[in-house]
Design a protein that fits this description.
CATH class of the largest domain: Alpha Beta
Structural class: alpha/beta
Strand order of the largest sheet: 1-3-5
CATH architecture of the largest domain: Ribosomal Protein L15, Chain: K, domain 2
CATH topology of the largest domain: Ribosomal Protein L15, Chain: K, domain 2
Distance between the termini: 70 Å
């Protein structure tokens, strides 16, 4: 019987291993204790330790020094480059909602920042919360408008 499933790519011999059949008698090499050893935590059903558990030792996350805090009011803007505006029609007004509708913006953010990667090559009115200096320069040198919203 081939270890390959129907439609599975055939690789070189030995590249696909069969699963270990445990608890199938002493001659299988995985009988009796079924690879769990004798007694102890790992031998019990439902055993195992949670991730990052260090056997009762003070865990690493609690040993390292802590400093500062994370502000809940921090503004985390979504970052969009000028090359991402290429799909919009000439002369159109582009804001965060239009970018969401096109699938360019995904997730939740506090604001929108436009960076200067790529060329615009169109006259657009771009509305965002933040612009990099280079992005503002590129937009306005091409005849477009960089509108700051939500100030």
């Amino acid at each position: 019987m081939s270890p390959f499933k129907p439609g599975q790519a055939k690789l070189r011999p030995g590249s696909v291993r069969r699963r270990k059949r445990i608890g199938r008698g002493p001659s299988s090499g995985r009988g009796k204790t079924s690879g769990r050893g004798h007694k102890g935590q790992g031998a019990r059903s439902g055993s195992g330790v949670r991730p990052r558990f260090e056997g009762g030792q003070m865990s690493l996350v609690r040993r390292i020094p802590k400093r500062g805090f994370t502000s809940m009011q921090k503004i985390k803007p979504a970052v969009v480059n000028l090359c991402d505006f290429s799909s919009f029609a000439v002369g159109s007004k582009v804001g965060p909602q239009e970018l969401k509708d096109r699938g360019i913006l995904k997730g939740r953010y506090n604001g929108l920042k436009v960076l200067s990667k790529g060329e615009l090559g169109k006259v657009l009115t771009i509305q965002a919360h933040f612009f990099s200096r280079a992005a503002r320069r590129k937009i306005e040198s091409g005849g477009g408008v960089a509108e700051v919203i939500g100030e």
